Amino acid sequence: MSDLALVPRRRRVVTVALAAALVLSLTLSTYLIVAASSWRGAASGWERLAEAHATEAAQATEDLAAARTELAATREQLDTAQARITALADEKAQLGDSNEVQRQLTDYQARVSAAAANVATSLASCVDAQNQLIGYLGERERYDAASLERFAGEVRGFCAEASSANRRLQQELAR
To answer: What is the C-alpha separation between 155 and 64, in angstroms, rounded?
Structure first.
């Protein structure tokens, strides 16, 4: 064969090789475009998830701070109520020596003591429940959000009962 006959054959081989390279290049480009689009979608999903967790963490921190503030206020109420009970009991004890005064004082002290015991028990339940809630909120990711909210409602109920018992005590003390 002459060298001239080889030239068209070489051109065909080169053309076929270039065409194959072009097809391979287009296939690879298409794959890379699809993969990049998929990665963008996944990255967007992760970003939304991170933002949601950041929002939950901020809410948990806020809830924890509120619970601590409420706990401090409840403890202060308990201390004030106990000091007032002691002062009133001392005042009433000094009222007089007559039998009627003593009977009234005994009756009053029994009512105040019962009301104070109710306040102390209710406040202790409130404080204990708030401490437990603070612990749960500190590890919020370990608990179901609905269960935490349900327990927070129970804690509010305990504290509402403590406030109600305190109002009844204040009414009794005002008599």
So the answer is: 13
